Amino acid sequence: MSVKRVGLPLMNVVKLRGTPILQQLLLEERLLRSSSANWCIVNDGTNLPNIVMGLSGKPCELVELEPVIRDQVPVIKRFTGGGTVIVDENTLFVSLICNRNDVPDVQPYPRSVMAWSGSLYSQVFNGIGDFQLRENDYVFGDRKFGGNAQSITRNRWIHHTSFLWDYSESNMAYLKLPSRVPQYRLERDHTDFVCRMKDYIERAGFIEKTIKAVGTQFMLKELSFDEIDDSCREHLETTRLLTLDELKETLAKTTQNESIAQAV
Amino acid sequence: MALRMWASSTANALKLSSSVSKSQLSPSLDASPQGLKYANSHEWVKHEGSVATIGITDHAQDHLGEVVFVELPEENGSVSKEKSFGAVESVKATSEILSPISGEVIEVNKKLTEAPGLINSSPYEDGWMIKVKPSNPSELESLMGSKEYTKFCEEEDAAH
């Protein structure tokens, strides 16, 4: 053990592969609210395409409801803020759950946590593709490949990221253009705004470098999913899968409103 | 289930950028207002008779950034001291709001549904969040006064 590692706070590292995104998010919310440890969760791709909205997301504004209902694409509302993504086996996830006292230079506010994460990933992408944190996105140049979201409680916070290792245009078609877009996007459509991470870095190498970067600030301890203590479940759970009936009802209301607007 | 108060970012929503400093706001917001009590989690309480009004401070809204969504409890529900009663969303983050005191929620600020930005533009007035009937008024005594809270914020910012 090197001298510099003495006194570093402990962080549990859990490496998942193909774990359903709903399961991952429910785990993260539980660990944020019920655990007192620090956690780094890596999910190397999720199993099936899912749409994931932030806490305040409205399906009628963010999702193309008709094809989503027709194709039965699951729609999840997560406990963190931020925008809407469609995730699949080519999305990589890294989530960092920290006690604020273990990261004392970081104030428990969005911009401070975002800046800290940007610094961490600068180590990962050092020398690769003009990486930067731009507004709230990870970009190579001016093309987004990583989206971020957070939830902040009194003494803990989570910062989680979905990385576009690769994506399919057909899946992207399930999403509407959001009303709120970053300024640096300008008028670019989706294909000109995002890029594929696989064009810049090896998949296994990215995961390895990320964990190594986390290890510069924490003492790492790897745990399997089964080793996570799940005895404490008395916490507020806001992450949920929207039901098909909810989506159909939303579509019906939206259609009705549009008809009324046209009639007027 | 907490009452979901959805926000729409309308053209009239006050667009406060993260660079807006306290000095650009009303002079009365430059320092923590007198007559209020403050929690170290950055909520304020205004106690008038049997009603306590609660919101988040100018320091909190400034650090959070533009608020785009507010989640508040149901009326007739209860809140507990130092326990979460809701959340705000800003800059990709949800941040929980803790109640400085315990009591029954007698009113919720419904204006925050359409105008969550009131929390940024008027954190001590139009941006109030809930009104509570305190169940234990002595809890107010442990909260900070204006000068103490102002100093607390300065020390907290200086430490980072």
TrEMBL record, chain A:
<dbReference type="InterPro" id="IPR004143">
    <property type="entry name" value="BPL_LPL_catalytic"/>
</dbReference>
<dbReference type="InterPro" id="IPR045864">
    <property type="entry name" value="aa-tRNA-synth_II/BPL/LPL"/>
</dbReference>
<dbReference type="Pfam" id="PF21948">
    <property type="entry name" value="LplA-B_cat"/>
</dbReference>
<protein>
    <recommendedName>
        <fullName>BPL/LPL catalytic domain-containing protein</fullName>
    </recommendedName>
</protein>
<feature type="domain" description="BPL/LPL catalytic">
    <location>
        <begin position="36"/>
        <end position="222"/>
    </location>
</feature>
<dbReference type="InterPro" id="IPR053264">
    <property type="entry name" value="Lipoate-ligase_2_inactive"/>
</dbReference>
Automatic annotation (TrEMBL), chain B:
<dbReference type="InterPro" id="IPR003016">
    <property type="entry name" value="2-oxoA_DH_lipoyl-BS"/>
</dbReference>
<dbReference type="GO" id="GO:0019464">
    <property type="term" value="P:glycine decarboxylation via glycine cleavage system"/>
</dbReference>
<feature type="domain" description="Lipoyl-binding">
    <location>
        <begin position="51"/>
        <end position="133"/>
    </location>
</feature>
<dbReference type="InterPro" id="IPR011053">
    <property type="entry name" value="Single_hybrid_motif"/>
</dbReference>
<dbReference type="Pfam" id="PF01597">
    <property type="entry name" value="GCV_H"/>
</dbReference>
<comment type="subunit">
    <text>The glycine cleavage system is composed of four proteins: P, T, L and H.</text>
</comment>
<keyword id="KW-0450">Lipoyl</keyword>
<comment type="function">
    <text>The glycine decarboxylase (GDC) or glycine cleavage system catalyzes the degradation of glycine. The H protein shuttles the methylamine group of glycine from the P protein to the T protein.</text>
</comment>
<keyword id="KW-0809">Transit peptide</keyword>
<dbReference type="GO" id="GO:0005739">
    <property type="term" value="C:mitochondrion"/>
</dbReference>
<keyword id="KW-0496">Mitochondrion</keyword>
<feature type="modified residue" description="N6-lipoyllysine">
    <location>
        <position position="92"/>
    </location>
</feature>
<dbReference type="InterPro" id="IPR033753">
    <property type="entry name" value="GCV_H/Fam206"/>
</dbReference>
<dbReference type="InterPro" id="IPR000089">
    <property type="entry name" value="Biotin_lipoyl"/>
</dbReference>
<comment type="similarity">
    <text>Belongs to the GcvH family.</text>
</comment>
<dbReference type="InterPro" id="IPR002930">
    <property type="entry name" value="GCV_H"/>
</dbReference>
<dbReference type="GO" id="GO:0005960">
    <property type="term" value="C:glycine cleavage complex"/>
</dbReference>
<protein>
    <recommendedName>
        <fullName>Glycine cleavage system H protein</fullName>
    </recommendedName>
</protein>
<dbReference type="InterPro" id="IPR017453">
    <property type="entry name" value="GCV_H_sub"/>
</dbReference>
